[in-house]
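Quick one - inputs below.
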Amino acid sequence: MTVRMRFPAGPDLPVDEVLPATGETPLAVGDERVVDFLTLVSRRLLAPALARRHPELGSLGFFLRRRELLRAVERLHEALGPQALAFPRGVVFHIPPANVDTIFVYSWALAALAGNINVVRVSPRSAAAADTILEVLNDSLAEADPVVARTQRMITYGHDDAVTARLSAGCDLRVVWGGDRAVNAVRQHPLAPAARDLTFPDRASFAVLSVAGWAAASPAARREAVAGFVNDAYWFDQAACSSPRAVFLVGDADRAEPVRAEFVALLGAGARDRGWEVDAAMAVEKRVGAYGLAADGAVARMAFPDNLVATMDLAALAAAPREWLGTGTFGFVTVTELAELVPFVRRQDQTLTHFGFEADELREFARQLGGRGIDRIVPFGAALRFAPIWDGYDLFREFVRLVTVEI
Amino acid sequence: MLTEVFTLRQSEKEERLRAELVELVAHHRRNCPPYDRILAALDTDPEPATLAELPWLPVRLFKTRKLASVPDDEVIRVLTSSGTTGDVSRIHLDRAAAATQSRMLARTLGTVLGPRRLPMVVVDRAGVVGDRRSYSARGAGALGMVNFGRDHLWLLDADDRPDVAALKDFLARHGDAPFLIFGFTFMVWRYLYEVARDHGLDLSQGTLVHSGGWKKLADQAVDNAEFRRRLGADTGLTRIHNFYGMVEQIGTVFLEGPEGGSLYCPDFADVIIRDPVTWEEAPVGTPGLIEVISTLPTSYPGNLLLTEDLGVVHGVDDGHWPGKRFSVLGRLPRAEARGCSDTYTGGR
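Output:
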């Protein structure tokens, strides 16, 4: 029962040697030694050569800048007030998704900043960006305080339930990404009585486009909005939980039709300009997905002008797909106002990307939803931007325990 | 070689098929509401000028949706195909469709087998047919074929080991006159070819009908030409007919001609190779995705199906039989998306 040591890079270790013997962390919340290390990592990630190769590492680099880290710590202390003190939870075991290369760093960095001992399972199927990040982490280690190497571990192992079981039993907090199946599989392995799970199950996301807002926007603003939408949709083959599966046009139905047509035209052009491609296998996948939805009666009209973009006019709002239908498959439906979406929204719904609305409209809509679904409402282009508040959790808060002192 | 079903030149076939398929599409639209909803959403032309313009379904749709054009109480058999991901196609046959498919399969194979049932070697084990109510793909293939022979020898024992003594015995009784061999391509290679070669058996009076693809033989560098060459040289077997077909178009097989190397379409069927970017028909010699066309399906809307197999047309009206001749080149890889889901699947 050994695991591959990815960080700190080294020979395979028996799983029992991955966790420190005592489980007591020598780090504090906002520990200067961790902040220094993350700052080093941030600088390397923001180096132009690297950012050109892996643009997604640039946003990670920004996220890890010293100023951002210190502000997160500061915000925590401010929110707590003088009666509560924050401490690390102890040992955090992270099981990030295989296919989204950077999630494991966000999840880990916040837990490390909170002073925890961390063990991160890096999937054996992880992509090139993950290897690059691990290289950066290992390269940064030379200049870091040795406590970092002693407390932070990134490992790779196959589908070995025994390893997962051992690490689950030894942690104080288990962070499980990767959807319902991953969560259910990992939950077969018990935690210690005082430990708990932080889970990220399957989610679905949508976009809202204001018909009036679109009409009021300049051609340049429209193109920019669509460029953002293209990024949201195509970066992870539209399969990221925060990638929009359907677009709700909000406004007058007659005026919505030309807006939709222009949006779709710009969408195709924008996706082509960015060099996205949909291969034959994916093109077939899209037909299977869209035809299936049509067979169910959910689609009034569908069109496949090329392999990049498939459009479906949904028969009703309730027909909007939550499941993945293949890269570049978009449902469209028009509603008169945002409030009409309220009965449609479920707990499962995560991100709503928006264009053309006033801030007050969106806030009012969020109030109407009352937290029953949709955890984040962000502009077109920001769907994939990781934030420390994710799926309704303030992650940094989840990574600390509180001690109260009353006089 | 007398044939009833490899007779039509391409232009005549296309016009006949187009007319019949326009009727069949209308029939399925009337009787299979999910199919009608798909075509309505696509806004398809009910009477297009060419075969290529008729609307096709992705064959995998039979794995995700129930598509039948007859009421449940008229379904006498539901065929299933196993997929690699565990999902299966479900093909609903009523009495008429079941009868038609076996009759047309018999006519097609009769072209190379002759009118009489021949003694038959099945390169599989008897148990593969199994439960008659729920067929596996391998079992259905074998079951569909056993009717074409008599005095069957099931070559493999329960542990999938070839029974050499039984094969020698079969050849002693039947090996001097025409006999039939059926099996999946890789099994024929592994269990029949190697055994026959190693024991110096004479298969020269046999006619081999085989199917299933070359993927499992690719690592041994065995392709169709090598398969034919080695069987001929080492066992004397030269009447070899590969065929291409799928449970979603049961009864329709595209059969390799006696000269080897090309598959031909029976008169009631055709293929269109589609460019995977434009989805237009690809020119002769240009590979693309195979659309299979058949007039046989009447109880489910499976007349026009886009497969996930790659193929190429070698020529039209220029081979042993008229019409298109083509090859299957392999399978499209399954589309895989990045994304947040489905990472840790544990031990299951």
